[in-house]
Every structure is written in structure tokens, then in C-alpha cells.
Amino acid sequence: MSTTLLHDAAERALALMRTHGFDGAQVTASLTTQDEVNISHNEPSLLRSTEVRRLALLGLVDGRKASTELSDFDADAVRQRIAGLFADASSAPQDAANAVSGGQRARIVQGPQQGDLGLLADKAAELLAFRARETPRMMLDEGAALHMRADSRTLTTADSDLSCCLGWYALSVFGTARDGAQSSSFNYTGGATNDLRERHAVEYFAIDEMLRDTERQIRTEPIGANFVGDVVLMPNAVANLVSWLLGQIGDVQLIAGSSLYRDRVGALIASPLLSLQSRFDAPGVAALSADAFATPPVEIVREGRLMVLAPSLYGSCKTGIPHVPTASSGWDLAAGTTPRDELLGGVTRGALVGRLSMGSPASNGDFSGVIKNSFAISDGRVGTALSEVMISGNVAQMLRDVAAVSRERLDTGAFRLPWLRIANLHFS
Amino acid sequence: MNQAVQPTPAASTYVETRRHELRKSRLVMIDGSLAMNSRTAEGGISSRVYDRGYWGFASAPDSGQGTNLEQVGRKARENARTMARFGPRTAFGLPGGSYRGEHAFAGRPALSQKECVERLAELHAWCAKRYPALKSTLFMLQDEHHSKWLSTSQGSEVLNSIQRAVCYMTLTAEGPDGAPVEMLDRISGKGSLADLDLSIEALAPVLDRLHEQLQDKRHAVSARGGLHTVVMGPDLAGILAHEAMGHPCEADLVLGGAMTRDLVGQPVASELITMVDYAHSRDGEELMVPVYADDEGTPARDAVLIERGRLTDFMSSRETAARLGITPTGSARAYNPNDEPLVRMRNTAILPGSSKLDDMIAGVDDGYLLLKTSNGQADSTTEFMFGINLAYEIRNGKVGRAIRDTTVSGSAIKVLSSVDAVSDDMQWTCAGYCGKKQPMVVSMGGPAIRARAHLGGE
Q: Going by C-beta distance under 8 Å and a sequence separation of 6 or more, which residues neighbour residue B375?
């Protein structure tokens, strides 16, 4: 399906919704194509090519709302679904907060628009060759080199018109190191990039470091005691903190009144070392919100101070909090001034944490989790890999207790994150 | 079978073609406001080819005209051949035989969105009146219906239908310190939302209990971190089965180096533990996620993973079974129309024993009663974890104070080997998703279990 046909499909669907009598409507026609070379158990295994097309419709009738999606663009199918949508919306409760975006304009063309299958195969081969040569005890259970192209056009009855042609490459690896009967925990890394040619495959997303670290995690020890200590979180674990914070400032928690930060804009909610801002032009990210707004850059936390909450248009109308449109991902936690190696120097007793294996933290921030792909730290030195060690604490408190931020960051597209040193976690 | 599609074998060793429809409804009501009111329908056609040791896969929207089928089949073959650039790869004969049959759940006629909205509004209004001090309520109704028409070059012709519905109920109160405290419960079942009893009469006892638990949790204390005797309620045994030994018994993880590979025939649990991944039925009754033939057209069989404490079998696809030299269990399943089948669990359970839950609690001097879980994660080492969002202290055989959200973890082998009591009842659930490259609908079940496990805390 060509871009023109996609745009036509959106226009036709919006016209049909107008004709059907919707007071307001939002239509997105999208086409996503993907080519993916897969690795399975240290061998290239599968080439996967997929095409997904979708027509997403949201309709308002007398202040009532419903939405639907279909993959069949045939005119009769669309007409029939619009009639069903009208019935669904008509039966919903009236809600003055229901609205569609108005007057938004964006034309985004970003990233590699055409994938190079040969390049994907070359990168998969580089991953496999590196593993065999440098980390032979590593088993790549799964790996992928892929190109994705996501085209979309979004229209609303209030004259928003947003189009996007987004292309990107991605690499991912997931695996376990093994020696005889002993095995490490699984480990993984990956991310999106606009340029897959500029480096060796393992130099993206710290793949080389992950593979080497995992080989060092075959032999593990428990930590052996309950104590209060420090952690140095690697970026993968830092993402848990950032995701929890973003959830706290989004629709569900704000509407339910269960956000810890509902009345905290302008207040210090985190260490002054922390600044979180958007990066909605990151590889694989389009600067568009799900409710059809262009998403200008936004600063969430500046030197520990909460700058804004981020409800959608609906959440904003519901709560009276100013609307801050955000894209689906693309977040940047500012780099600090401490070299990564020096973060460890300040830890008397604790752990270097690669991954937190845990349930979702509670609304109040309480959490406990198993630390995986992690190493003990004693008097500033990294020791043995750990197993069966848990930490517990409170995420909101952890944000306040950040004691140092690394100069280096890991950029996966969705997140660009540093390493963080945080005090006062309960180890058990 | 009207809607079956025919594979085009060409010179390949194996070809499968799948036509897959996925329909979902999702409604979310927060404090009486309908935040989501959505119905989606996705249809796609896919082909997967195994040629000289390599797989090619392609998918496209289902045009209903046959054009995409031809294109998708050609692309899948081309993709498999393109992989030959990596050099020769061992090609396995793919075992597993074939299956012909159609299976669909005959449930009640689906609820309209209007009826769903009415159910949600009734639930909210009832809670607002009965529990006026609540800070908020959140109810979510969700169902999904997969219909997969599959043909394979080995002669399988299958219609598989998986249909499940879930109602999530979340009550939020304010703790003594002003911070929010939440409790979540859910009911789930086979079929559409019409097959769940969403009446106030049916849900009032569930909500009353949830509200009581919420009040307990408002005054919860921190767990003491470390190794403890825990009684895991029936809600937890299923996730214990799924996370602790289910994932490490998936043949692809076994091939990847999971510790279970060298443990077949060895004791990995107490003799009180028998664990099965059921294909479709137990004791003649169809389970929540019935798989009669998987998405490779393999006739599905039960996989007895642990029998009286000894590891006995793995769940497998055709290729992983060939690589391990075992008989396929029919466990290859794909979630979306554009997904390739992976080894996935179906209905995983620890079987009931002979103890009574009350006696199991009474036998604990100092420990914890764990009742509700959020999510979990497995590991190749068999070290597992799952979140606990409702638990109580046990002191001198009596249930005491609630504890704050925590996490239970441990080596599955150590924890299952420490089991000294298994209750004689059993509960099943099919809420939530299993995540492994793709999401997947699974069911899990089990009785209450008493064991030694590690709790996160102070």
C-alpha cells in the first residue's frame, strides 16, 4: 500500500464518519512493515517479513466516546464498523472531558525509509562472530537485526492533520552464559538506531559489555546477610524508576487521584542531580501523541524539581491539570559529572545492579525485587556476581536518594539513561 | 472447513499457512468515567517455510481475495532461501504428525458495548455507595477471541479458537500517611465477557472481601526480608508452576542452556509435587485455553513436567523436539496474526494434594500467608520471582497483620523441594499475559502450597 493510498484511506474514513453523524472524530490509517533476521541458539534461523495495516477510529456523539480498530480497509467493512462505532459511542455515558485535537499540523519524515536486508544479515553475522570469538560461553537464545517502517496519517474533524514516515533499525540480543552445569541468569540489551552502518554490531546498545558481563555471572554467590546498603543501577534498571515516575504523572494515576505528585508541580521530588526531559525525535520515536497532538519538547524534572504533569487531553479536561502531550517513548535523563567507574568508589557495601526483576511498584512507590545480572560491591570494588539477592525500598524515596549520576549514558532510542548511585536500600 | 487456506509446498520440507483473526474489547472506567471504550478486529494471513534448515516467515493483512496468500507464501519461501547466505545449516525432519479438526467454544451471545458500559456503571455506583471512604475505583473489562485456520504441508487442517474474558477490579484508599493504597482482584474465564457473571450479586462478595483486604493493607507492616516458611494460596500456585518450572521446561529455553536440560529423571521437587501443562482438558473437562493442535498443526498432548518430584518432560515445537530428540507436545503458538509460533505454555498446574489450607496455616509458628500476586518472571537458572500484593504474617499458627507489597523469590528446585504440604483444592485463572517476545494467553492453576521461600523486605 502506498503512502498516497494510506492518506486516502484516512480521508475517506473521516468523511464517512462525518456523514454518519459523529460530532467529532479522529482517524489514523497506518501501515507498518518489518524485515527481521532472527538468531536462535547461536545460529541464524529465520527471516521474517511482516506488513500490518490498521485503521483506528475514535468517534464522539453527544459527548459520548468509543473507539475501534480494523485491518480491513475495504469500503464496506469500514462503513459497517463506523455504524457499529456510532452505536458503541451512543451507548457510552456523557463526559464533558471527551474531545478531539484541533488545528494540529505535523509532517514527520525520519530515519532510514528503506531497509537493507544485506545490512541486517551482516549485523547478525557480526553478532554471531563476536560471540563465538570473544564470549564463547554465551548462548544467544534470541537475537534480531531488523528494519521497521511505520507510516501513518491522522486526521480529526477539528482540522488536525498529522503524518509520519518513520524508519529505523534495531538490534536485540537475549541470552545466557553457561559453563558445564552452571548457568548465568538471562540477560539482554537492544535498541533502535537510524544508522546501523557506522559501528560494529556489538558496539550498539552496549551489546559487547552485556555479553562479557554475562559470562562473568555464571558463578554467583548469595549476599549472605540482611543489611542497608547502596546500589549502582545500570541503565536497564534505571528505566524502571523513570517508567514508574512517568506512570505517576499520566492519566490513570491523575484521574484516580492516586498519584503521589498530583499537587507537587514546582516542588523538589527528586535529587537535584536528576533532570528528565523528552527526546521525541529519538530513533524509532515519532513526536506525536496517541490523541493526535504534535509533541514539542517537554521538561519533566529539572534538577530534582517537578516541572509539569503530563495528562492527555482527556486527562487534562478531567482533572483541570494543563494538557502536556507526550509521545509513546523517547526520554532523556541528563548525564552527570561522575565518571562511571567512580560511582562505585563511593559504595561501602552494596551492589552493581543490571536488572530489577520485580512486580510493578505500588502506587505509593513501595517495591521489592530480585537483583539480576548484578555484582556485589565492597569498599568501592566490584566483587562476585550475585544470586538470590533482593532489595526493597520505595521508588519515590530512591529518586530523592540519588547520590551520583554518571557522565556516560546508554542510548537505546526509547531511553537515554546514565548509571545512578542510590543509597539506603534494604538487602536481603 | 470453509475458511481454510491451502499451503503451497514447492520444494520445501515444511510449509504452514495460518489465517488469523483477533478480536478484542476493552473498557476502562475510573471513578465512573469511561476512560476507554474500544473494540478492535485484526485479520492477517501468514506463511512459514522450513527449507534446508532455515525458516522464512511472511505475513500481510487478509484481503480475503487470495492475492495476499499467494504473495505471502512466495515471500516466506524467498525468505527461507535468502537465509542460505549464512551457509549450510543442519535440517531436521520435523516430527509431530498431523491433525484435522475444528474447535471453537460455544459460549453465550456476546455482550454489546452498551451492556458492558452498564455493568461497569453498576459496579462503580455500588462501590461508591457501599464504600464511601474509597479514594477511587477502577474497573476494566477485557475479552479477546483468536480464531486460527491452519493448514500444513504435513496434512493438518485445523480451526483453533481461544477466547477469554477478564474483569479487573481495583479499589484505592488513603493510608494513614496520606499515600495511596491499592488492592486489585480479577475474575477470568473461557469465552467472552458474556460468559463471566458480572452481576452485583455475584461480585458483591468478591468486592466486600477486596475492600476488607484493602483496609488490612492500609495498616500493613513491612515484611522481614529473608528465607521464611510461606503458605502460598491457590492463586499463587499457578504462577509458581508457570514461572518457577514452567518456563525452564520450555524446549527452546532448554536448548538455550536452562539448567533443566541435565535434570530429566532427577528429583527437582518434593514428592508431593506433580506438575502438568495440559493441552486442552483435565478429567474430561475442557480447560480455559484449550489447544487441540498447535499453530504448527501438531496434535497437542499433555506434558507431565514433574511427576512426584522428578522432572519428566519438556514442552516443545516440532523443531525443538527434533533437536532434543523428544516427542512434540504441540506447544508452538503465535499471538498476533503477524507472529511466528514459539514454544508457549497452555494450561499449567500443580496438582492438588491431601492437606487442608487451615491446617497448613496452623502448622506455621512464624511465617507468611501469601494470597495475591501481580506479575512474575522466570530465569534460566530456575530462580524465579513474583510480586505479592496481598499477604499476612502467620504467628503461632494464626493469621496476623497484613504486610506491604513484597516479592517472593528463590531457586525453583530449592523451593519446590521444600514443599511439605499441598492442599486438596484447586483454582484456575486465565487473567494476564505471559511475555516472551510475544504476549500469550495462558491459564494456570493449583492448590495451596507450603514451602520455604525468600521474601523481600527489611
A: A359, A360, B386, B387, B432
